[in-house]
């Protein structure tokens, strides 16, 4: 079943099929015109037999709250088959935490233009190499286009963001860049654009599968394995940037509320501040690195121009030995301009893109914290409503309206359930966020260390080449007599 | 004091000139010109005077205007000291003080002050090299104006040219270049000068282009070094803020980039000194050589005109003596200029080759030194970082 949700924001939630893997919207959402996430839902159901364990008929994993953190979940106390699988996933990860036993490598390659004109698109080959038992074979490939990646992200975001999971954002859309490619401009800038995108898509997938929960999501598995993928529609609204914008709007809305959340947990306050600071600093660093990329490219171009000029000067110089030395200088500078170009690429693909990725990731992290606040707000709202209903019921006690009194008592019962649910949701999301942040920080440390070391190695290479070139030139200069 | 780097000059005990000190005031620079001489022309053996840029220009122009020196390459005038760009940057920095941290401000201020100092040193060097070239020239060193310049310890009162004089200069140059085209078109009987003409015209243009391109290249280099500076600062802040393992990592990398960017800045500065300044200097010298060729061509044209006038006079049998004298003068002038010009151009080539050799060797040596320094820093940092991971 594929139902496309489009239309006004206040979409009734009752249409969601029981087989869906999307989030089940509480009826509380019905009356909420401000629910910006109604649009974010895309229902897809999968009928693959292997996935039975994950596709229970019961409520989707995304919204089933795990019992409060005070009790420990053990296979004995929990009978839900899905929860058992989820729990064992968590265990496995904790076991593997010590070593680097994540054995999966995804590459995005062979960009190929499909079609012509404005309907053309780039198809990328997505190859997965893994020894994990989750997959049928240990190496397999599929063809995917950019909107497929966006579609994957939108599904994951709609399922996991609002319950506290940090879903890696998909690469940004670029109308200008893509138009050039469509129009068939086979020049350096469109080649660079495709390479930038290919690299970004690869990093996106690797980050996604490194997340233990997301890796096992059926949409992810389908994306990696299935030769045919239903075309993701309305990716305009569902694009990563669009989603993040909605997340940020929600964040602003929450912040503007007069009811400030009583943060009883200092950990959250501290972490939020930490990510706030990190965001500011990473953006600043990113801007400086982007500037470096730009200036390094300029340096390459200007060095090439100087090389040509030096060659001309050498040609017109009438002293033979000096003329030869100037030509050699021109050759050295030409080689150096290529060196600068290569270094600019390293500056970009290693350093700059790392920072760009993390700036976007931190926006997702901040979004998750905001969801927690929203969850808290929901809980508080239902508590307030319960109180009102109780007061109303108390008043009704003194009137002779037995039907109304019964109705009030029923409503109260329902609300009491909601309040309990609200509290459970809040505790669950808080627990999830703690785990997620811990995992995120570990990844961040690993990522930064690994990539910065690679970057420094690129700088080493450049210096070694420079030494080679100038070493070869020196005797030529000395030979001038 | 900065030694003249672009010109390979023999230092001669009979006359040694240098700029021993310089003072930068708000809108002018005061150079202390120091002379050591055994020549009888001077009252003392060692003495100093204070001179400003305009006085150097006056001296240069007096050479150019002197007919007796028509056969020499007049050492090019030093460019006007230009601190405008640097001053503007310092001012902008002052205005933006509120928007940056104290560390950043101090850092940038130090950077700009170093830049200011570098420009200052350069202008001193360029004024000095002019004087040294004059002092090394067998004829110019005897010039009276030069001696006055060196010795007279009062203000020479050479106010800058007023508007009228500047306009006159402008028209003189226009006429000269129009003439230059005319005269350049006349094929020279003498192979040596014909070759030199072709050579210098092309060489001058190519040196001009190379000079401009080298400036652009070096500016990009400086910009990249500035970016690395900012990156180092950001990494430092990240290092102090981070609560994870990364804090030590960031601090170490920040420290590395602080050091490598100093080296990058040095590379740009050395390229500026050894390459850009060299090209700029030979741009000016090749212009001076072209001017010499022009003067010779002019005197050839005068000589040919005098011949024609003599023939006419003889034909009409009028004012023959006058015409003969005039023709002889022109002939003598032309031959004198040709003789000294030949030697000057040969010397020019010798100086040029020596200067390029010296500078290119030093450039390569410095590039190697800096690359090796950079490499060592990078490798040692990588060793630490990998060891701790």
UniProtKB/TrEMBL annotation, chain A:
<protein>
    <recommendedName>
        <fullName>Sorting nexin-2</fullName>
    </recommendedName>
</protein>
<feature type="coiled-coil region">
    <location>
        <begin position="405"/>
        <end position="432"/>
    </location>
</feature>
<dbReference type="InterPro" id="IPR015404">
    <property type="entry name" value="Vps5_C"/>
</dbReference>
<dbReference type="InterPro" id="IPR036871">
    <property type="entry name" value="PX_dom_sf"/>
</dbReference>
<keyword id="KW-0967">Endosome</keyword>
<dbReference type="InterPro" id="IPR027267">
    <property type="entry name" value="AH/BAR_dom_sf"/>
</dbReference>
<comment type="function">
    <text>Involved in several stages of intracellular trafficking. Interacts with membranes containing phosphatidylinositol 3-phosphate (PtdIns(3P)) or phosphatidylinositol 3,5-bisphosphate (PtdIns(3,5)P2). Acts in part as component of the retromer membrane-deforming SNX-BAR subcomplex. The SNX-BAR retromer mediates retrograde transport of cargo proteins from endosomes to the trans-Golgi network (TGN) and is involved in endosome-to-plasma membrane transport for cargo protein recycling.</text>
</comment>
<keyword id="KW-0472">Membrane</keyword>
<dbReference type="GO" id="GO:0030027">
    <property type="term" value="C:lamellipodium"/>
</dbReference>
<dbReference type="GO" id="GO:0005829">
    <property type="term" value="C:cytosol"/>
</dbReference>
<dbReference type="GO" id="GO:0015031">
    <property type="term" value="P:protein transport"/>
</dbReference>
<keyword id="KW-0653">Protein transport</keyword>
<comment type="similarity">
    <text>Belongs to the sorting nexin family.</text>
</comment>
<keyword id="KW-0966">Cell projection</keyword>
<dbReference type="GO" id="GO:0031901">
    <property type="term" value="C:early endosome membrane"/>
</dbReference>
<dbReference type="InterPro" id="IPR001683">
    <property type="entry name" value="PX_dom"/>
</dbReference>
<keyword id="KW-0597">Phosphoprotein</keyword>
<feature type="region of interest" description="Disordered">
    <location>
        <begin position="1"/>
        <end position="34"/>
    </location>
</feature>
<feature type="domain" description="PX">
    <location>
        <begin position="102"/>
        <end position="231"/>
    </location>
</feature>
<keyword id="KW-0813">Transport</keyword>
<keyword id="KW-0007">Acetylation</keyword>
<dbReference type="GO" id="GO:0035091">
    <property type="term" value="F:phosphatidylinositol binding"/>
</dbReference>
Automatic annotation (TrEMBL), chain B:
<dbReference type="InterPro" id="IPR036871">
    <property type="entry name" value="PX_dom_sf"/>
</dbReference>
<protein>
    <recommendedName>
        <fullName>PX domain-containing protein</fullName>
    </recommendedName>
</protein>
<comment type="similarity">
    <text>Belongs to the sorting nexin family.</text>
</comment>
<feature type="domain" description="PX">
    <location>
        <begin position="9"/>
        <end position="156"/>
    </location>
</feature>
<dbReference type="GO" id="GO:0035091">
    <property type="term" value="F:phosphatidylinositol binding"/>
</dbReference>
<dbReference type="GO" id="GO:0005768">
    <property type="term" value="C:endosome"/>
</dbReference>
<dbReference type="GO" id="GO:0005829">
    <property type="term" value="C:cytosol"/>
</dbReference>
<dbReference type="InterPro" id="IPR042136">
    <property type="entry name" value="PX_SNX6"/>
</dbReference>
<dbReference type="InterPro" id="IPR014637">
    <property type="entry name" value="SNX5/SNX6/SNX32"/>
</dbReference>
<dbReference type="Pfam" id="PF09325">
    <property type="entry name" value="Vps5"/>
</dbReference>
<keyword id="KW-0813">Transport</keyword>
<dbReference type="InterPro" id="IPR015404">
    <property type="entry name" value="Vps5_C"/>
</dbReference>
<keyword id="KW-0653">Protein transport</keyword>
<dbReference type="GO" id="GO:0015031">
    <property type="term" value="P:protein transport"/>
</dbReference>
<dbReference type="InterPro" id="IPR001683">
    <property type="entry name" value="PX_dom"/>
</dbReference>
<dbReference type="InterPro" id="IPR027267">
    <property type="entry name" value="AH/BAR_dom_sf"/>
</dbReference>
<dbReference type="Pfam" id="PF00787">
    <property type="entry name" value="PX"/>
</dbReference>
<dbReference type="GO" id="GO:0042147">
    <property type="term" value="P:retrograde transport, endosome to Golgi"/>
</dbReference>
């Amino acid at each position: 079943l594929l139902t496309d949700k489009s239309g006004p924001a206040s979409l009734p939630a009752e249409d969601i099929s029981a087989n869906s893997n999307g989030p089940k919207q509480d009826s509380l959402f019905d009356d909420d015109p401000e629910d910006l996430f109604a649009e974010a839902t895309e229902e897809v159901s999968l009928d693959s037999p292997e996935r039975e364990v994950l596709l229970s008929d019961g409520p989707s994993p995304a919204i089933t709250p795990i019992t409060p953190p005070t009790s420990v979940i053990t296979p004995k106390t929990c009978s839900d088959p899905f929860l058992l699988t989820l729990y064992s996933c968590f265990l496995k990860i904790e076991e593997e935490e010590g070593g680097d036993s994540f054995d999966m490598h995804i590459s995005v390659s062979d960009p190929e233009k499909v079609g012509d004109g404005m309907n053309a698109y780039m198809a990328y080959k997505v190859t997965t190499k893994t020894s994990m038992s989750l997959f049928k074979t240990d190496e397999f490939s599929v063809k995917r286009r950019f909107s497929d990646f966006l579609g994957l992200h939108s599904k994951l975001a709609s399922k996991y963001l609002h319950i506290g999971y940090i879903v890696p954002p998909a690469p940004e859309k670029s109308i200008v860049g893509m138009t050039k490619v469509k129009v068939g401009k086979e020049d350096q800038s469109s080649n660079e654009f495709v390479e930038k995108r290919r690299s970004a898509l690869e990093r996106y997938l690797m980050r996604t599968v490194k997340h233990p929960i997301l890796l096992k999501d059926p949409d992810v598995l389908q994306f990696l394995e299935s030769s045919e993928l239903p075309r993701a529609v309305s990716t305009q609204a569902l694009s990563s940037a669009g989603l993040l914008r909605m997340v940020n709007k929600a964040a602003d809305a929450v912040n503007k509320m007069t009811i400030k959340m009583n943060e009883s947990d200092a950990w959250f306050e501290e972490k939020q501040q930490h990510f706030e600071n990190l965001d500011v600093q990473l953006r600043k660093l990113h801007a400086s690195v982007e500037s470096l990329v730009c200036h390094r490219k300029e340096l390459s171009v200007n060095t090439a121009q100087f090389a040509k000029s030096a060659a001309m000067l050498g040609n017109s110089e009438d002293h033979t030995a000096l003329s030869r030395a100037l030509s050699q200088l021109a050759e050295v500078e030409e080689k150096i301009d290529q060196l600068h170009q290569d270094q600019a690429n390293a500056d970009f693909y290693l350093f700059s893109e790392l920072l760009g990725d993390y700036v976007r990731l931190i926006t997702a992290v901040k979004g998750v914290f905001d969801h927690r606040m929203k969850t808290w707000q929901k809980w508080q709202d239902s508590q307030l409503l319960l109180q009102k209903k109780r007061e109303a019921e108390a008043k009704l006690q003194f009137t002779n309206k037995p039907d109304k009194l019964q109705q009030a008592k029923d409503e109260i019962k329902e609300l009491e359930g909601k309040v309990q649910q609200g509290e459970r949701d809040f505790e669950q999301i808080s627990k999830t966020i703690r785990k997620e942040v811990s995992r995120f920080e570990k990844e961040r440390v690993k990522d930064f260390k690994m990539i910065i070391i690679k970057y420094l190695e690129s700088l080493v290479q450049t210096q070694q080449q420079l030494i080679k070139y100038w070493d070869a030139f020196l005797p030529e200069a000395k030979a001038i007599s | 004091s900065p030694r003249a780097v672009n010109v390979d000059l023999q230092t001669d005990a009979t006359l040694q000139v240098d700029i021993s000190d310089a003072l930068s005031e708000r809108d002018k620079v005061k150079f202390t010109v120091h002379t050591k001489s055994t020549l009888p022309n001077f009252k003392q053996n060692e003495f100093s005077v204070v001179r400003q840029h305009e006085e150097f220009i006056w001296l240069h122009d007096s050479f150019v205007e002197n007919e007796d020196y028509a056969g020499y390459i007049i050492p090019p005038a030093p460019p006007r000291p230009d601190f405008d760009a640097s001053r503007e940057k310092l001012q902008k920095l002052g205005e933006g003080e509120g928007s940056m941290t104290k560390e950043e401000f101090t850092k940038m201020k130090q950077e700009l002050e170093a830049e200011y100092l570098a420009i200052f040193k350069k202008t001193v060097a360029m004024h000095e090299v002019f004087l040294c070239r004059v002092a090394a020239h067998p004829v110019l060193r005897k010039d009276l104006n030069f001696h006055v310049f060196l010795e007279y310890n009062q203000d020479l009162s050479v106010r800058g040219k007023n508007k009228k004089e500047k306009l006159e200069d402008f028209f003189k140059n226009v006429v000269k270049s129009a003439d230059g085209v005319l005269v350049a078109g006349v094929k020279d009987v003498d192979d040596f000068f014909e070759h030199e003409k072709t050579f210098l015209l092309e060489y001058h243009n190519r040196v001009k282009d190379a000079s401009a391109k080298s400036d652009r290249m070096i500016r990009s280099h400086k910009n990249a070094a500035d970016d690395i500076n900012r990156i180092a600062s950001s990494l430092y802040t990240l290092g102090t803020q981070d609560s994870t393992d990364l804090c030590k990592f960031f601090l170490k990398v920040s420290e590395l980039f602080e050091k490598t960017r100093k080296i990058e800045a040095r590379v740009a500065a050395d390229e500026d000194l050894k390459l850009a300044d060299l090209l700029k200097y030979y741009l000016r010298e090749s212009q001076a050589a072209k001017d010499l060729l022009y003067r010779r061509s002019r005197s050839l044209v005068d000589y040919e005109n005098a011949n024609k006038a003599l023939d006419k006079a003889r034909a009409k049998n009028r004012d023959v003596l006058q015409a003969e004298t005039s023709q002889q003068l022109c002939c003598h002038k032309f031959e004198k200029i040709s003789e000294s010009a030949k030697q000057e151009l040969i010397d020019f080539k010798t100086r040029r080759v020596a200067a390029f050799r010296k500078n290119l060797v030093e450039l390569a040596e410095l590039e190697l030194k800096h690359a090796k320094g950079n490499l060592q820093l990078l490798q040692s940092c990588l060793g630490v970082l990998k060891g701790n991971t």
